[in-house]
Amino acid sequence: QEIPTIQITDVKHYVNQTVRIGVWLRQKRGSGKIAFLQLRDGTAFFQGVVVKSDVSEETFEIAKSLKQETSMYVTGEIHEDTRSDFGYEMAISGIEIVGESHDYPITPKEHGVDFLMDHRHLYLRHLKPFATLKIRNELIRATYEFFNKEGFTKLDSPILTGSAPEGTTELFETDYFGESAYLSQTGQLYAEAGAMAFGKVFTFGPTFRAEKSKTRRHLTEFWMIEPEMAFTTQEESLEVQERYISYLIESVLKNNEQELDILGRDKEVLRSYTQLPYPRLSYDDAIQLLQDNGFDVEWGVDFGSPEETFLAEHFSKPVFIVNFPKEIKAFYMKRHPTRDDVVISADLLAPEGYGEIIGGSERDTDYEYLKTRIEEQGLDLAEYQWYLDLRQYGTVPHSGFGLGLERMITFVTGEEHIREAIPFPRMISRIRP
Ligand code: ATP
Ligand code: MG
Ligand code: MG
Ligand code: MG
């Protein structure tokens, strides 16, 4: 009978059977009589055991000489192993080396952050990046599922753009056949055009911002999910947002238990964030609350990390801050019906110091008002004519928001720094590997 070649995640179906698995060696320990091989195959991690008295002399010699990250096929019987977290191990009877490895740089000793980031192409193989990026994958999967269930159409916005949606200070400029083009900072304006055509749309793609300051929360290349909904008010949009966040957390709790354990993330704390609704606090009240608690902030400022951390911690769950000052928000945000100084906007702040994960608003529908706002902000009106067209041909109330995927990942995984949330981070001082 032929020996099946399987993946580690499937070993539970092969207890007491002999299988073959393509693996890499993570670590090895043992004595003169037994070798314990820590193995991974990209689906999971488990242990193989080579017992000298049970295998040929040659196989035991190979086992003893294996180096970290050697790739091979191991053959052996699967046994239940209640002592390990994984629950199974392999009694190895044969080893076929595929690719040798010598002097692998990431040894079991502690390495500094810069070293690990310089070796990111290899570090991806290790436990923590593996767990974090598996959760990234789940958040992306659950995002498509959520928006498809809710009747959205995915409509991609361009990456190369001819104009700057929200001003020019953080733009990456590039040459486009002799003209200036910019890497997209947001797909928002295109998503609005999409909503007028498809009702409910979401974009999902990379966005670029030349963030000049170094923080734990800013990348220069990050991925954003931007839903936009026609015939939708701000309050209806907030309800979609909280349902979405709750759905993402539930999906990870359901499908990534192993990864959350690897990262040491408290599942009960995460579960508490699935309880809706999230509190809504006006910007005015937020300023008051901050001042009452000793923060030196005045009405009109945007929040920094300490203020965002305090506000969400105050409620021990994600919190919406609504109706920000007009002057610190983008030109397209809808005027407040009774006040001239604020716009119908909302930021969703995550607890535990993870900061702003969503920014959104209702969009203004008035052609003349938007034209004035574009001019007031010193933007080139000609570049926005196509956008203003949307207000000329059957404008409707509409709202949308942008979720930063990597912010959401740090929040769900409990990672301290956003560089961990993307396979190859781009930051002010890092563009390699
Ligand atoms: P912040 O205030 O944290 O700088 P922002 O208000 O400039 O964020 P928005 O323009 O509202 O960001 O973008 C929508 C979302 O994109 C944010 O809520 C956040 O989740 C994410 N985001 C923004 N900038 C970055 C960045 N540089 N790196 C990673 N994610 C980001
Ligand atoms: Mg910013
Ligand atoms: Mg902000
Ligand atoms: Mg924002």
Automatic annotation (TrEMBL):
<dbReference type="GO" id="GO:0016740">
    <property type="term" value="F:transferase activity"/>
</dbReference>
<dbReference type="InterPro" id="IPR012340">
    <property type="entry name" value="NA-bd_OB-fold"/>
</dbReference>
<dbReference type="GO" id="GO:0006421">
    <property type="term" value="P:asparaginyl-tRNA aminoacylation"/>
</dbReference>
<dbReference type="InterPro" id="IPR004364">
    <property type="entry name" value="Aa-tRNA-synt_II"/>
</dbReference>
<comment type="subunit">
    <text>Homodimer.</text>
</comment>
<keyword id="KW-0963">Cytoplasm</keyword>
<dbReference type="InterPro" id="IPR006195">
    <property type="entry name" value="aa-tRNA-synth_II"/>
</dbReference>
<dbReference type="InterPro" id="IPR004522">
    <property type="entry name" value="Asn-tRNA-ligase"/>
</dbReference>
<dbReference type="Pfam" id="PF01336">
    <property type="entry name" value="tRNA_anti-codon"/>
</dbReference>
<keyword id="KW-0547">Nucleotide-binding</keyword>
<comment type="similarity">
    <text>Belongs to the class-II aminoacyl-tRNA synthetase family.</text>
</comment>
<keyword id="KW-0436">Ligase</keyword>
<dbReference type="GO" id="GO:0140096">
    <property type="term" value="F:catalytic activity, acting on a protein"/>
</dbReference>
<feature type="domain" description="Aminoacyl-transfer RNA synthetases class-II family profile">
    <location>
        <begin position="133"/>
        <end position="423"/>
    </location>
</feature>
<protein>
    <recommendedName>
        <fullName>Asparagine--tRNA ligase</fullName>
        <ecNumber>6.1.1.22</ecNumber>
    </recommendedName>
</protein>
<keyword id="KW-0067">ATP-binding</keyword>
<dbReference type="GO" id="GO:0003676">
    <property type="term" value="F:nucleic acid binding"/>
</dbReference>
<keyword id="KW-0030">Aminoacyl-tRNA synthetase</keyword>
<dbReference type="GO" id="GO:0005737">
    <property type="term" value="C:cytoplasm"/>
</dbReference>
<dbReference type="Pfam" id="PF00152">
    <property type="entry name" value="tRNA-synt_2"/>
</dbReference>
<dbReference type="InterPro" id="IPR002312">
    <property type="entry name" value="Asp/Asn-tRNA-synth_IIb"/>
</dbReference>
<dbReference type="InterPro" id="IPR045864">
    <property type="entry name" value="aa-tRNA-synth_II/BPL/LPL"/>
</dbReference>
<dbReference type="GO" id="GO:0005524">
    <property type="term" value="F:ATP binding"/>
</dbReference>
<dbReference type="InterPro" id="IPR004365">
    <property type="entry name" value="NA-bd_OB_tRNA"/>
</dbReference>
<keyword id="KW-0648">Protein biosynthesis</keyword>
<dbReference type="GO" id="GO:0004816">
    <property type="term" value="F:asparagine-tRNA ligase activity"/>
</dbReference>
